[in-house]
Design goal:
Number of helices of chain A: 8
Distance between the termini of chain B: 67 Å
Organism (chain B): Seohaeicola zhoushanensis
Low-confidence stretches of chain B: 1-22, 211-218, 224-256
Shape of chain B: globular
Distance between the termini of chain A: 34 Å
Protein name (chain B): Cytochrome c domain-containing protein
Radius of gyration of chain A: 24 Å
Protein name (chain A): Sulfite dehydrogenase
Number of strands of chain B: 5
GO molecular function, one term (chain B): electron transfer activity
Oligomer: heterodimer
Keywords (chain B): Electron transport, Heme, Iron, Metal-binding, Signal, Transport
Strand order of the largest sheet of chain B: 2-3
Number of domains of chain B: 4
CATH superfamily of the largest domain in chain B: Cytochrome c-like domain
CATH architecture of the largest domain in chain B: Orthogonal Bundle
CATH superfamily of the largest domain in chain A: Oxidoreductase, molybdopterin-binding domain
Structural class of chain B: mainly alpha
CATH class of the largest domain in chain B: Mainly Alpha
Shape of chain A: globular
Largest interface: A-B, 124 and 109 residues
Largest sheet of chain B: 2 strands, antiparallel
CATH topology of the largest domain in chain A: Sulfite Oxidase, Chain A, domain 2
Helix content of chain B: 40-55%
CATH topology of the largest domain in chain B: Cytochrome Bc1 Complex, Chain D, domain 2
């Protein structure tokens, strides 16, 4: 980004202009004037900054105001029942701050206080129970990091390259550290019938967004969570209590969780029949496609995060995840899939959590067709869009975990494309 | 009690799954749920009809109810308005490109429709239909899909007899067999393709929300960096001036004088109840309900492009003008004040809330 927008008619401006000219040479020559940011005492080094308590709960500094959730207005009829996208192109590491983690509501984000909160367990149990929020805090709790991905993430890309940015193509995902109680603990507290095959979970909002979960999963790793990233869940993430269903589609992570029913059959609710089912080319639809398969995306460079520096060192980075376990490897191609090299994982993959990868490379202005390809611990390899279409046809919406291509041009700009 | 080692507790629970009734370590937390509490919350209905209450409703009654409560989003004939879901049509399109998925073409069970209407509709006023009304609305949706005749009466007795066309159109997730084995193993690393060509570009389609906005913000932020103190002061000040000036010009002096800013602010908060259906302010558009700019002080039913109910139109023809008194009465009990209004909102209970919302609407009265 040019510093030419600096329009302060002062000596500083003159010097700043000289610095820009100097920077253009890339290598600091002997003639280069000293950087006034260094050679002059800056205001922030002389005066005082804000005192404590200026912002009792802080927001990101104003220079980061573009790192926000965004939606795609044409996707849905109304923002009350809609979705927006995490700015993954601008984040690094793996934890998604709650304030910019994508939202999906079916009847809007409701305001429900801890005092007004009740959780009921009923159905095939010895004793139907009601818990207050305070009750929940007295059960032994656990803390785990998990990704939550909407089944529709990348759904707009089935028919072809549509949305120009990683935020829009892959931003229906977040990754948080949750604290909560194993659902198993609550089921045991109520004395569930061990022959029961299902639990049905619903929210307190008008949509209720009910989903049926097989008992095996409910007893395995599902959490009734009340904290995320160390603090209370934000309103839009289900304050005060949401369900966490590791590795499974986000729609099942019921927010404002109010009821858990132990049952011997699924409810076949609207959200698990008319939605979140996958229609194949022959018109037959898959149901109960709960698990999110391995997937990856290069977050930078990408259309919203073009290369803004000159030739030389370039960091290619992105995210990989699998609902079936830990990411074991990520490969990167710069030529649209002809050749691949293995990226460096920031740390070993963790089960059902985002994994950050890096490829520390050199770029000399050549065009690139960047792709990432994830593998998980089951040996599964992320497929291409062509491979997915071969099995599923083109009418699917959900569960598009195809390899994405960014066309990086010689000026550093990147575009969402499909390749042969 | 809770000092049980965790692994022991898990081992115990595991053993008990095999052994029978779960009686793992209990914490004695929570309290028994009362039967009326369970009845109040446990409304789900499964495909076997478990949970379906006694009741009935006719296509004829359903048509009227649908017109009042549903048509505003779903269309008079369940054909869908704008991006709202289409509930009828599409049969035989599931193996076509862009299939039309409706209750008639896609949903497998009538119970699901009953359950969803009962618990989650009407949008913005859920759980207000009576059991018989839900039967009637579902009957009308079935009728709209040519699945029942116009004299049909749906009830708990016959609902399970109705089979939806796509009831056998679903298979259980088969990815383990159809995909996982195909896409596993050591992947190709070199010479994986002969050539690569770009076959489609997102820029050509151009449906991405204006991302340049974000870049403009970035540029603004850079130009206002404190390292350039003069610019930092100049730009935000200019931005404030442009946002504040029109507001000051728009409000008529006499109205400004009459409006209590605190009350308007409170009204903005209360208006969140209305915002599911109504927009107000700059760029407001008709949504489920009409946009509400220039409504206060104007004749009722006058927002361009909005399809009002017959009853509201009649009231408008009768000379209804929205002022403090008429709005207060309407907002307290919309459906009492105008019988048959499409506004499926029960009303604001508190006089202060009504006064606040009216003040808020006045601030957009123009």
């Amino acid at each position: 980004m040019s510093k030419g927008s600096n329009n302060n008619p002062s000596r500083r401006q003159f010097l700043s202009g000289a610095a820009v000219a100097g920077a253009g040479i890339a290598v600091a020559g002997a003639a280069r004037a000293g950087d006034p940011l260094i050679t002059e005492v800056q205001q922030w080094a002389r005066g005082l900054g804000e005192g404590v308590d200026a912002t009792p709960y802080g927001l990101p500094i104003r220079f980061e105001t573009d790192v926000v959730r965004r939606n795609v207005p044409w996707l849905t009829a109304d923002p009350i029942s809609s979705i927006n996208f995490t700015p993954i192109h601008a984040l690094d590491g793996t934890i998604t701050p709650q304030g910019c983690a994508f939202e999906r509501h079916h009847s809007g984000a409701i305001e429900l206080s801890k005092d007004d909160y009740r959780l009921m367990i009923n159905g095939l149990v010895d004793t139907p129970l009601v818990f207050t929020y305070a009750d929940l805090e007295r059960f032994p709790r656990q803390t785990h990091v998990y990704f939550c991905e909407c089944a529709a993430n990348t759904g707009m890309e089935w028919a072809g390259a549509q949305l120009n940015g990683a935020q829009f193509t892959h931003g229906m995902i977040h990754n948080m550290e949750y604290t909560g109680i194993p659902l198993r603990t609550l089921l045991e507290e109520a004395g569930f019938d061990t022959s029961a095959k299902w639990v049905y979970v619903e929210g307190a909002d008008a949509s209720s967004n009910g989903r049926s979960i097989p008992m095996e999963k409910a007893l395995d790793d599902v959490l009734v969570a009340f904290k995320a990233n160390g603090e209370a869940l934000r309103k839009e993430h289900g304050y005060p209590v949401r369900l966490v269903v590791p590795g499974w589609e986000g729609n099942m992570w019921v927010k404002w969780l109010r009821r858990i029913e132990v049952a011997d059959a699924p409810v076949e609710s609207r959200e698990e029949t008319s939605k979140y089912t996958d229609t194949l080319a022959n018109g037959v639809s898959r149901k109960w496609t709960w698990v999110m398969d391995a997937k990856s995306i290069i977050t930078s460079p990408s259309p919203q995060a073009p290369i803004r520096h000159g030739h030389g060192p370039l960091v290619i980075t992105g995210l990989a995840w699998s609902g079936r376990g830990a990411i074991s490897r990520v490969d990167i191609s710069k030529d649209g899939g002809k050749t691949w090299e293995t990226a460096r994982l920031a740390k070993p993959g963790e089960k059902m959590a985002l994994t950050r990868f890096y490829l520390d490379t050199t770029w000399n202005g050549e065009e690139m067709l960047l792709q990432a390809r994830a593998m998980d611990e089951t040996g599964y390899v992320q497929p291409t869009k062509a491979q997915l279409r071969e099995v599923r046809g083109e009418n699917s919406i959900y569960h598009n975990n195809c390899i994405q291509t960014w066309w990086v041009q010689s000026n550093g700009e990147a575009e969402n494309v499909e390749v042969s | 009690m809770s000092k049980f080692p965790k692994h022991l507790a898990i081992a115990l629970a595991g053993a008990l799954v095999v052994a029978g009734p779960a009686s793992a370590e209990k914490f004695g937390l929570g309290r028994p749920a009362a039967p009326d509490e369970i009845a109040a919350w446990d409304h789900d209905v499964n495909p076997e009809g478990v949970g379906l209450p006694v009741g009935s409703g006719s296509v004829e009654d359903g048509e009227a109810l649908f017109g009042d409560y549903c048509a505003i989003c779903h269309g008079d004939f369940a054909e869908g308005v704008d991006n709202w879901p289409k509930l009828a049509g599409g049969q035989g399109t599931l193996d076509h490109k862009d299939p039309l998925k409706t209750v008639g073409s896609y949903w497998p069970h009538v119970t699901t429709t009953w359950d969803y209407v009962n618990r989650s509709m009407p949008f913005g006023n859920a759980q207000t239909l009576t059991v018989d009304e839900v039967y009637a609305v579902v009957a009308y949706i079935l009728y709209s899909n040519d699945l029942v005749e116009d004299d049909f009466v749906l009830s708990n007795e016959n609902l399970l007899d109705i089979e939806l066309p796509n009831k056998d159109g679903f298979i259980i997730d088969d990815r383990a067999e159809s995909e996982y084995s195909k896409w596993s193993g050591e992947p190709c690393m070199t010479d994986c393709k002969d050539k690569v060509e770009i076959t489609m570009r997102a820029m050509v389609l151009d449906v991405t929300p204006e991302e340049t906005k974000a870049r403009k913000v970035q540029e603004l932020v850079k130009s206002t960096n404190p390292r350039n103190a003069a610019a930092a002061e100049a730009v935000p000040a200019a931005a404030e001036a442009t946002t504040e000036a029109p507001a000051a010009e728009e409000a008529k002096p006499e109205e400004t004088a009459a409006l209590d800013p605190a009350l308007v602010a409170k009204g903005e908060t209360v208006f969140k109840k209305c915002a599911a259906c109504h927009q107000v302010g700059e760029g407001a558009k008709n949504k489920v309900g009409p946009m509400l700019n220039a409504v206060f002080g104007h004749p009722a039913g006058a927002v361009e492009g909005f399809g009002y109910s017959k009853q509201l139109k009649a009231a408008a023809e009768g000379g209804l003008v929205w002022d403090d008194a008429t709005l207060a009465e309407f907002l307290a009990k919309p459906r009492d004040y105008i019988k048959g209004t499409k506004m499926s909102f029960n009303g604001l209970k508190k006089d202060e809330e009504i006064a606040a919302v009216i003040a808020y609407l006045k601030s957009f009265a123009q």
